[in-house]
Structures are given as structure tokens and as C-alpha cells.
Amino acid sequence: MKLRRDVFQAIADPTRRTIISLVALQAMTPTAIAENFDYSRQTISKHIQILTECEILEQEQKGREIYYQLNPNGMKEIAEFIEPFRKMWDERFNKLESVMKKHQSK
Is pTM, for the whole model, over 0.70? Predict the structure, then answer.
């Protein structure tokens, strides 16, 4: 049985969240990712490794370079957890908007 790191622990770290945001826009090499931080390349590589083990990032070999990109399926567990809260807040904001419209019309 292969154990996988916890996705929620992985995204709890602000550096890893920033890495996710960077590669969500375009595939990047570890060096290109590391250039966005004041950490050593080894530190960033460890963060990338954790995100890859969680299946949030996937890698693709292009020639001699490895590129990391966002794996949308890896984000599914996070999205499924957040969805009920998003619905709850949407309902609350809709109710607030309704109350505000009624109040403005008076």
C-alpha cells in the first residue's frame, strides 16, 4: 500500500501555495520556480517534491529539463472539501443582498 502525503498539510505552507499559483499559470522548471523565492534551490525542490507526492503537481520531461505543472485532478480533494462552505457563503451573501435591496427601496 502506497501512502500519500496529506494534501491539506501540503497546502498549509505559504511557500507551497505560492508554487501552486506559479505553475497554475504555466509549466516551470525547478530553477524558474526557485527564482521567485529567497530560499535555496534545495529548499524549493523539497517543496516541489511534497506537492508532487500529493499529486498536486505533475512533472513532464522535455529534453534535459523537467517541467512542473498543476495537476487539476490533484486539487479535486481540496475543491470537494471547500464546496459546501462556498455554497453556504453564497447563500448568505444572496440573503444579505436581498435584505440590502429591500432596505434601499424603502
Answer: yes
